[in-house]
């Protein structure tokens, strides 16, 4: 019998299956991956460095959709804004992965390369070294929070009786339909950039 044209198991298939499980249920287990691929659990471990290794493969897969080239742009604040929008879009496609990835250290080399570029961008722009990581972490908090918000219903407030909360009812009625998350994200991003521009040694 000839050998199969494609391997029955590889890191790409493992990552794809793990991401499918995370998109469905917010987590995965190695036995679940094995069952879905029709292989033994031990076979999966031959290709990956345990569960932590799969988490990093997931991180690489999702972050591959972030346009790291935006960090090569000028001026720095326009580059950061473009990176933030691309970052948000990548994680908005897989919101259930956010809790999983934010509770484990970043080890994936390709992802660390993007952080390296972000750090270099801010240092080259004149930011003091102690301010660099707080600025990046704050941006991530904004981006990931908004990515989660994109998975929420468009109508987040259901008022049974407008007279009980009349001001809220008027504010909701005045808010344009559609684009709730985009409007809020752009407002928060603008506020973030205004603050960061004023940090010591920032320009």
Quick overview of this protein structure:
With 203 residues, the chain is an all-alpha fold.
Tell me what the structure shows.
It is flat and about 60 Å long. The N and C termini lie far apart (67 Å). Helices cover 64% and strands 0% of the residues. It is mainly α and 203 residues long. Helix 5 (76-92) runs parallel beside helix 8, helix 7 crosses helix 8 and helix 8 (129-149) runs antiparallel to helix 10. It is built from ten helices and no strands. The protein folds into two domains: 1-48, Arc Repressor Mutant, subunit A (Orthogonal Bundle), CATH 1.10.10; 69-197, Orthogonal Bundle (Tetracycline Repressor, domain 2). Residues 8-66 form the HTH tetR-type domain. InterPro entries: Homeodomain-like_sf (IPR009057), HTH-type_TetR-like_transc_reg (IPR050109), HTH_TetR (IPR001647), Repressor_TetR_C (IPR004111), Tet_transcr_reg_TetR-rel_C_sf (IPR036271). Keywords: DNA-binding, Transcription, Transcription regulation.
Instruction: Count all strands and give the number.
Output: 0
| Helix percentage range | 55-70%
Largest sheet: none
CATH superfamily of the largest domain: Tetracycline Repressor, domain 2
Q: What is the helix tally?
A: 10
Strand content: under 5%
Identify the CATH architecture of the largest domain.
Orthogonal Bundle
Rg of Cα set: 21 Å
Structural class, by secondary structure, is: mainly alpha
